[in-house]
Amino acid sequence: VNRLSRFLITALIMMMAGMSVNAQTVTSAEVKSQIASQLEEIYKMFVDSASKVSEARSKVNAFFVALNGLIIGSNAMEMIAALFVFGIVCNVLWVQSIKSYKCLNDAKFKVILGMEKEMPFQCFTDEQQICTGEKRKNFTAIEQYIPYAMIGMYVVMLFCKYWDWLVGVICWCS
Predict the structure, then answer these.
(1) How many angstroms separate the Cα of 26 from the Cα of each of 7, 11, 14, 47?
(2) Integer Cα distance of 129 and 121 in angstroms
(3) What pLDDT shows up at residue 110?
(4) In three state form, how does the secondary structure of 48-101 look?
(5) What's the whole-number mean pLDDT along residues 71-79?
(6) CA 88/CA 85 separation, integer angstroms
(7) For residue 18, how far is the Cα from the chain centroid?
(8) What is the pLDDT of residue 1?
(9) SS3 of 18, please?
């Protein structure tokens, strides 16, 4: 099954490259050379794609940081509760986007690591093994501290803003 799969993948790559798939005209060395060339191009595309996902993730993080700064710096005292609730909702969405980007990057790197098995040098596989051996938190875990801290800050700010009102309600109920 494995040899058949490799043959079918080879034939598909060759057809995508516009090559003729004729067993009598293509030698094993030619096939291997074409496969290596196509694999290298696909590998480059995936690595570039993973880099673009990381760039997009960074831009999303910058957007949410700016949005939180805007909410905190707002002087709309009559709408302060709505702004803080909006801030909490935005930070929940921020956490979800971080998780989504992590999932997407994980999938891309699984494909890249699988492709590296067919290559002479496995730089990402080696990097992952080195990082796994060290005791360090992954970036996503650290990255999520920021929106969670912001949520906590908004909750505390709401609590402080409406403390007198809360005390009055509690005293009235007792």
Answers:
(1) 13, 11, 10, 30
(2) 14
(3) 85
(4) HHHHHHHHHHHHHHHHHHHHHHHHHHCCCHHHHHHHHHHHHHHHHHHHHHHHHH
(5) 75
(6) 5
(7) 34
(8) 41
(9) coil
This prediction has a pTM of 0.66
At residue 151, does pLDDT exceed 50?
yes
Q: What are the Cα distances from residue 160, in Å, to 18, 28, 144?
A: 68, 74, 25
Q: Do residues 98 and 140 touch, judged by C-beta distance below 8 A?
A: yes
φ and ψ at residue 82, rounded to 5 degrees: -65, -40
Using an 8 Å Cβ cutoff, are 98 and 144 in contact?
yes
Task: Give residue-wise pLDDT tens across range 8-54.
Answer: 566 666 555 665 555 444 556 666 676 677 777 777 887 888 888 88
Residue with tokens 């043959």: 7
Token pair belonging to 112: 């890249």
155's CB contacts (< 8 A; 6+ apart) are 88
Of residues 147, 139, 141, 145, the one with CA closest to residue 67: 147
- Please name the residue that has the structure tokens 């939180």: 68
